[in-house]
Amino acid sequence: xxTLDIKPVDVEPPPGSGVPRMVGTLNFAGNVxxxxxxxTTIDFGRLxxxxxxxxxxxxxNPASDIRDLLAEITNxxxxxxxxxxxxxxHACILSTPSITYGTDFTIKSLSMDRFARFAFQHAxxxxxVEVGLKSVAGADGGxxxxxxxxxxxxxxxxxxxxxxLDYKTRLSEAAAxxxxxxxxxxxxSMEAVASASLTGIxxxxxxxxxxxxxxxxxxxxxEDLARIMAANMLGMEPEEIEGHAEIEDLLGELGxxxxxxxxxxxxxxxxxxxLSTPSFTTGTDFMIESLNLExxxxxxxxxxxxxxxxxxxxxxSDLVKSAVQAGKGIHYEVVDAQGxxxxxxxxxxxxxASAATSQAPAGAKRPIPSAASRPAAQPPPSPAAPATxxxxxxxxxxxxxxxxxxPVDLTVxxxxxxxxxxxxxxxxxxxPVKLAKLEGEPVDILANDVxxxxxxxxxxxxxxxxxxxxITSRMDRxxxxx
Length: 482
What we know:
This protein is an alpha+beta fold. It has nine helices and 19 strands. It has helices at about 40-55, 60-85, 160-165, 165-180, 225-235, 245-270, 320-330, 420-425, 475-480, and strands at about 5-10, 20-30, 30-40, 90-95, 100-110, 115-120, 125-135, 190, 200-210, 215-220, 275, 280-290, 295-305, 305-315, 350-355, 410-415, 445, 450-460, 465-470. The strands form two sheets. The chain has a 15-stranded antiparallel β-sheet that branches. Strands 16-17-18-19 form a four-stranded antiparallel β-sheet. Strand 18 and strand 19 (about 465-470) form a beta hairpin. The longest helix is centred in the N-terminal third of the chain and has 26 residues, at about 60-85. It starts with 6 loop residues before the first strand and ends with a helix. About 40% of the residues are buried. The model is unreliable at about 330-395 and about 395-400 (pLDDT under 50).
């Protein structure tokens, strides 16, 4: 994709602390749970994106170009691993990707049966790939993952329960109950948050759910409070807590309980969901941005004079929405969440963003968090900050509305390959042709030879079809028309 050669190396690259970098992450859920991530520096990200987009590295925008490229790489490689696991009888599904960026953070999944880390190098640049997996019997969330078309079957959704689900009450009560009953600590809701509360070391426990609903639940706790929580749990003094294992275990359990509470509510409404094992992120300077989600809510609490955040991002699958509309005549509508302090909701939320500090890494341009993701007391971004993407122009803006009724040829391309003419002449019935596309990768959908979408092959009543999983941007499709 990027015309860059990388080679595996045995020598571990130097620590990334202080260096602006990005990590693309996917979570596995089902009979196999775990985490997969791809990590690179902003500098190497610029080089990779420039090779793909045909522009100079300095023209690359980390806020969009590198982020989108890293998400695509993570999806492709992680999806390939998922297919291999499914073929080996370890049924699982993938969460939507998230991007973590900053200068000081580490990410890992807890209690893994198997962990592997691979380092690659291109010139002076390093690329790290990590995977941690754990066998979890009976964690398929009621989904028959052994069936290839399990997620293409229409679910039985109770739309009244789904629309009545109060995310804030559900998550807030679950978190407060854990603090009270397990940790003997009181969690109090906050409306305004001081920017000073976002400094120092922060620990974040995250769980992802995948299936008819995709999303993430994260709990952000300052390091010193996390130590108090672990000490209360174990009946010790905070200074007696040595290392980080006890803190990780506690926050992992906290994420499991809070995220599992929401997953239970979604399951009770008829949605099929599987929950991943918790992942743990810690550091002083990082932001977590979950992509392709349509609803985001963030709740701030105070405990022992420290600020605790609980975040939730979710997207209900298009299959569920269409089933609800067609089967029950009721339109499922995602309501945009308001941020803390009564801020206005976004018109078209696409992702969530979680900040561990309010500082941007040196030398890197950060994506601006959504309005809902910023604490109420935090000032608006300065004019020098990178702007969020503007809405794609409509056809009328180009004077192309006349084209709307023109038919086009829609083609699905399973893959391509190059062969010599002499090999072409030897082809006959039964001869296999190897395509340059891995099993399980999405197939390309083209309109008049222009890539407009990607999808997966489905079979219904002995007929082939394509389920669209990704649409290229409107701007890219308009450029193709030219």
